[in-house]
Amino acid sequence: MDLHVWPADFGLPSIDVSCLQFLACAKMCASPVSVVYSTSPWNTPNGEYPAVVDSTSQGKTITDFDKFVEVLRKSGQEVVIDAELTASERSQIDAFSCYLQQYLNPAVLHTFWADDLNYSTVTHHWFSSRLSFPYNLYYLEKRRKRIQRFLSEKSVTAILKDGLEALNMLSAKLGDNKFFCGNKPSSLDALVFGYLAPLLRLPLPNDRLQLHLRACPNLVRFIEQVASIYLPPSEEQLRLQKAERKMWESRLQKAEKAKEAEKAASAEANQAQEDLPLRDTILFGLGAITLSLLFALHSGIIQASGIYL
Fold first, then answer.
1. How far is Cα 233 from Cα 12, in angstroms, rounded to an integer?
2. Centroid of chain to Cα 231
3. Where does the record place the GST C-terminal domain (predicted)?
């Protein structure tokens, strides 16, 4: 089997959530898949990665995680993913998978694709530099618009709130365990790793979810453990990523400065708006007093007498 994924970066074998889920699941069961780092998504059935070309399924391309897990289970390897789980535990995995898809996935998508500052700082630059022109413009616009439409039914506040609650739930579920279903990895661990690893590793100027994740030490430990045991970067990957580290640090610093400048400008604008009612009240009061005096003088209510020296 050939597993086509987006390239590695930031100490991860890929920066894409779904690609990481496929990679983690394959490595956890020691599947002999050939990982192909690709930047030509137009060659896949749905125009996205990951894509698995499996010779045992009449050359059909697999892009669905659950179908990929089924193929791994039936591939006859020594380690079978989820083999030791009970029917009840498998049902729990299905339930958690649905929960994460509904509550954590939108928050992750918003963080990388809908948040303007994160998108311009990281996502847009990363994909633009790896896709050829002008296809990069088409791909990024198409993917971002699709994600924005998907997220449009909820407010940003609600999306992030759901994401924070999902992180809390995962932290409580993991507890002090090594993996989510005990001492051996399962397909749920692969799913969770895919969602959380980019959130932890990528340089994000708007980092609300990232900070919350870092405040969950058991989840951080889980991510680092899976990455180091099953998905360690090669020497070549580390060398290339080290060469770009200063560039990413510089982009993050510029974005944070822009964020602070925007925050200061917003605070000044809000203060100006707060000052307007007071100014208007004073002007209105002075105007009313002036008109009243003029009316009183005109009607003879108040009479002005001259003073001669």
1. 7
2. 21
3. 86-250
Helix (H, G, I), strand (E, B) or coil at 262: helix
Strand order in the sheet with 61-62: 34-37, 2-5, 51-53, 61-62
HSE of 163 in the Cβ direction (CA atoms, 13 Å)? Answer: 25
* pLDDT tens-digit readout, 164-217: 999 999 999 999 999 999 889 999 999 999 999 999 999 999 999 999 999 999
Q: What is the mean pLDDT of residues 101-121?
A: 97
| Alpha carbons 128 and 134: distance in angstroms, whole number | 9
**Rounded Cα gap, residues 11 and 227, in angstroms:** 8
The CA distance from 40 to 21, in Å, is: 20
Predicted structure pTM score: 0.85
3-state secondary structure of 220: helix
Write the DSSP symbol of residue 12.
B
**For the chain, what's the residue count?**
309
Start-to-end CA distance of the chain, whole Å, equals: 111
Whether residue 226 is predicted with pLDDT greater than 70 in this model: the reply is yes
Report residue 142 as tokens: 């198409």
Of all residues in the chain, what percent are helix, strand and coil, respectively (each to 5)?
Answer: 65, 5, 30
pLDDT score at 309: 41
Q: Which two tokens stand for residue 43?
A: 């060659």
Helix (H, G, I), strand (E, B) or coil at 127: helix
Nearest CA among 101, 43, 31, 37 for reference residue 68: 31
